[in-house]
Amino acid sequence: MGIVSSTAIVLSIAVTLAVGDWQAPAENPASPQPYIQLAGSGICPQDRNTRTAPSRLRKKSNPLPATDENIAAGERLYRKTAKPTTCYLCHGRRGNGNGRLAPKLDPPPRNFTCAKMMDPIPDGQLFWIIQNGSRGTTMPPHKATLSETETWQLIHFIRTFSR
Ligand code: HEC
Predict the structure, then answer these.
(1) From atom 43 of ligand 1, which residue's Cα is the shortest distance away?
(2) Residue 87 CB–ligand 1 contact under 6 Å
(3) What ranges do the domains of the chain cover?
């Protein structure tokens, strides 16, 4: 492959990632979009099949205060620094489950904007899944990359999507 065409490919990937969340394409009967049902947008509540956290942890509420600093730290992790993959690429910039990677994911990423679904989920459950991932899905474990404090900060930020 020539230098010019590989540069073009790299550029187009960069542009695609920079543009933001995946959007459902305009209605076009000639090319049905099988992924629309899978992406999280607008599906509220979603089917939840994540494993249940051990009861001690499940009952735990966020030990950090919901200060602006903790929420901002969570936002930075969500949008920029969390490893292995920043959360927004799957869960979406607006937290609606519709990140750029979402169209290919089954089950779809959690739609954090759905208060009806999110409000009853305890903090300890969110903590458990962020740390351990959801086996058999693309939700990765973050035990090795996020401290407990960072995980609780992320939970404060995620909660802002449904307020
Ligand atoms: C590669 C895609 C991907 C990335 C990156 C990702 N997630 Fe997820 N996430 C998912 C999917 C898919 C599910 C749904 C799993 C299921 O239904 O079992 C999910 C579910 C969740 C849940 C729901 C837990 C529950 O019990 O309902 C939380 C909370 C969550 N993710 C937080 C995060 C955070 C925080 C990050 C970044 C540190 C992150 N995710 C990164 C794909 C991803």
Answers:
(1) 139
(2) yes
(3) 3-160
Asked whether 159 lines ligand 1 (CB < 6 A), one says: no
| Whether residue 125 has its Cβ less than 6 Å from ligand 1 | yes
Q: How far is the CA of 126 from the centre of ligand 1 (A)?
A: 9
Rounded to the nearest angstrom, the distance between the alpha carbon of 108 and the centre of ligand 1 is 9
pLDDT per residue over 49-63, tens digit each? Answer: 899 999 999 999 999
Minimum CA distance residue for ligand 1 atom 14: 109
Return the C-alpha torsion angle 12, 15, 21, 27, nearest 10: -50
Query: Each residue of 24-57: pLDDT tens digit?
Result: 554 444 444 444 444 556 688 998 889 999 999 9
Task: State how far the Cα of 121 lies from the Cα of 123, in Å rounded to an integer.
Answer: 7
Q: State how far the Cα of 87 lies from the Cα of 145, in Å rounded to an integer.
A: 13
Tell me the average pLDDT across 104-130: 95
Could you tell me which CATH class the domain 3-160 is placed in?
mainly alpha
- pTM across the whole model: 0.83
Burial of 119 (0-12, 13-18, 19+ CB in 10 A): exposed
> Which of the residue ranges 3-17, 41-55, 107-121 has the most confident prediction, judged by mean pLDDT?
107-121
